[in-house]
Amino acid sequence: MTKYTRSGRLQQIPPYLFAEISKKIEQTRKKGVDVISLGIGDPDMPTPKHIIQELERAANDPRNHQYPDYEGMLSFREAVAAWYKRRHNVALDPVSEVLALIGSKEGSLHLSLAFVNPGDYALVPNPCYTPYRTSTILANGIVYDLPLLEANGFLPQLDKIPKDVVKKAKILYLSYPNNPTTAVAEKDFYKEVVDFAKDNSIIVCSDNPYSEIAFDGYRPLSFLEVPGAKDVGVEFNSLSKPYNMTGWRIGMAVGSEELISAMATVKNNVDSGVFNAVQYAAITALLKTPPSHIETLNGVYQTRRDLAFDTLTGVGIQAKKPKATFYMWCKVPGGYTSAGFATHLLEKAGVVVTPGAAYGSYGEGYFRISLTVPDARLAEAMERIKKALK
Ligand SMILES: *Cc1c(COP(=O)(O)O)cnc(C)c1O
Prior knowledge:
Blueprint: H1 8-11, H2 17-30, E1 36-37, H3 49-59, H4 74-88, E2 98-101, H5 107-115, E3 121-126, H6 131-138, E4 142-147, H7 163-168, E5 169-174, H8 187-200, E6 203-207, H9 229-232, E7 233-238, E8 251-255, H10 257-268, H11 276-288, H12 291-314, E9 327-331, H13 338-349, E10 351-352, E11 354-355, E12 366-370, H14 375-389
Parallel strand pairs: 1-10, 3-4, 3-5, 5-6, 6-7
Antiparallel strand pairs: 2-8, 7-8, 9-12, 11-12
Helix pairs in contact: 3-11, 4-11, 5-6, 5-10, 12-14
This protein binds pyridoxal-5'-phosphate (PLP).
């Protein structure tokens, strides 16, 4: 029985994908099955020691026990700017072009609340990481789907968007290296995006949390590396994936001063920023982590990727070897829907994969696995899948 009617906004939000998956896992575990979840992208390895030690030090300093600045400490924003300069050769003004986020996930809601009016469109890739879609809905905007098709390298075709939609569009969401498809984007595509955004006064939001998770020598770009990008967009990045810090909740928005300042106004009215001790730890992560950390991390994911690729293609599943991200995006075998196949694997192998349709209708026909489980568990999952699909 419910006493209160939920807002129309909230009623439009589909159930959170991982909440549904968690329920199914729970039910199967209750039956005594040792379920292995390849469903959620959450690094299994610990945060490096030097980062934890800096948190400890900063947490012991009473000056950090008071409210933080909602936009982030200047020293954190300077560290972000230094990191972007070193890693991407992108120059950022730490005062006006960098904003601390409580994890990058919240950024798309700030951007939507800052710029989307009821009836405005947001151009949202399908399939996609769900917050782009849901933050548009929470701002009473309208989601216009951009199909990501394998034939186009999972890049949206901007010239196929109807003129009247382009006119009403406020934000274009992009995310490469892409979750869930693992696709990457190159400079030519980003140049086309900048021209499209300029011509149509559309804000580009490039969500780039996997910029450091890449294999075989591949180095993902930042959208901001393309000339003119900073005039039309923001990029989100995050400490979560490269430093195994998903639980710490710290990320950043960088780019256009005008967009950053509007997002900051929303934030200022919603929360009070990131715990300073976490920001100190993030500074250490960005500035003092030896390059060997990322090399080792990516080495582990690459070995897992190769094992998963060999196993899955060995039982006839079609998949491409990803250049980046810690996912694999695979074709569902003939005769199954993506949800049906995920259920089949849970029942027959006790292995959780994410059905592609959970990321949007164009994800139908695919499933995603995450490589963020310990080596031995992944090996066990692969053995079980092999047996189940024989
Ligand atoms: C993991 C992930 C993020 C990062 O989220 P945080 O809130 O920074 O932990 C953002 N976007 C995508 C597509 C992701 O997969």
